[in-house]
Design a protein that fits this description.
single chain; alpha/beta; Glucose Oxidase, domain 1; eight-stranded mixed β-sheet; four-stranded parallel β-sheet; 23 helices; 37% helix
Amino acid sequence: MNLNATLARVTERIRSRSAQSRATYLARMDAAASGGSARSRVSCANQAHAYAAFEPNDKLVLRQARQPNLGIVSAYNDMLSAHQPLEHMPALIKEHARRAGAVAQFAGGVPAMCDGVTQGEAGMELSLFSRDVIAMSTAVALSHAVFDGALCLGVCDKIVPGLLIGALQFGHLPTIFVPAGPMTSGLSNNEKSRIRQLHAQGKASREELLEAEMGAYHGPGTCTFYGTANSNQMLMEVMGLHLPGAAFVNPGTPLRDALTAASAERIAKITRLGDEYIPLARVIDERAIVNGIVGLLATGGSTNHTIHLVAIAAAAGIHIDWTDFDELSAEVPLLTRIYPNGSADVNHFHAAGGMGFLIRELLDAGLLHDDVTTVMGKGLRAHTREPWLDGEVAAWKDAPAESLDQEVLRRADNPFSADGGLRLLAGNVGRAVIKVSAVKPEHRVIEAPAIIFDSQEALGEAFKRDELKRDFIAVIRFQGPRANGMPELHRLTPILGVLQDAGHKVALVTDGRMSGASGKVPAAIHVTPEVANGGPLGKVRDGDLVRLDAEAGTLEVLVPAAEWDKREVATRDLAANQHGCGRELFVNFRANAIGAEQGGSTFGSTLPGPVEACQT
């Protein structure tokens, strides 16, 4: 199948734009790769420290420097359901590394906070920046320079992007991502959402709400809705960093363990000391990044990745922006309906045909680059297979020829929507993104007076006072990276949903995030530049008529240009966001954060190439 013309054009534009920074990055990685086994260049005293606690046989292998040493970086903790299953994986990896003629060491752990626990709380203001802490922690773990390959164990929101950003600074090392899989299905997402809205209206008690939430989030594994965590797993697969079909196999099953074992055996083969050398720097290139964007669009994935993918790409010397997402979205059909874009969960998606079916459909439609390198070798076509258990060993077969549920997963020639449902909005308040895959067509164009809030709590209080029973566009300011760390604004979802269901025309415009929970209410999010950095969203006043047109891709405050130009950007004392719950330690992160369209990073200027938005 010929490559889609828009896909080819956008990829070439990214390649041209990134030529210098990508060349700089690859030159650094090639220099780091020279010289064979990493530990052969480390002094004897340093090596002795690295191996002191090893078993005698492993010490012998390491001393001879002929077999690969694999570094394990894990985000394990047993508070986060998605990461609790990671506890036993290092032992399994070590066992199967030995079977493959290698050894493995637990190189280091990285923090793993749960956005689901911190939603609406002060800790949520650390969430975006935790990605950069994880990246730095990954670098610390791999900095000992005694590893020939890496296995990254992580699942959730900021954790996988952080692990990948950190690992890319060691891009000369082959790297495989090892997931834990989603929890089994519990209370349906639609029922959970219904009870949340009832509670917001005072029609369901806190006890009823807690019972529903615990019915939905009930065991080990990733939350089953298609938010950022499961979007991460889709991305790692479509970008070639998982073993085929590894993303959505439930934890605690023989197949899950077999896939973990197979990951250890595979990484041993692709180091410089193995049969074939596949460094991470050659897996993550311009084509892989574009494949990631396409996967996100085709599945209606999390809007958080309009930030994270930009930061991941920059870590590999590649520069993308929201125009790239927008142009690709116009060409990529929506092939899945997974909550919040439908009623099914990721277990249902996996059973219907899953990632193997999805990747094959997109490849056959010319909407993915097949000529990439993955951890399996040359070509993405290897990832159109799904795993099964052959005795105790993972094996692979072709994904189903047809979707097993047309309400969840479809062919590219019979999509749910002709486009990917993620769009760029631009106008006199800056640039923003909007996810419309779950927004009904009649709600995609809203023109209504603005009501200004400086926090989601302020909107919640106005709702309780019955002040919002009307058409309006909520403008929530000072929610960007420099203001307060850009927390997700999930508390708004049930409130705005109630108002929309009551017949009011409502929308949200904010320099903050909504993440994978962006749903049926139109939400222009990530407005850049943010208000705390002088962004023109701070010029909006109560009562201004605002037009959000997701069809035309515009976001405009309808005031005369002369008046608009004279207005001052609002300011606010942000001291309350600078202390408590560890926020004191992140003052430099907030001060140095770059814009959402540039990846929201706190160390962007240290990566290869420019950090300003790319508009060409």
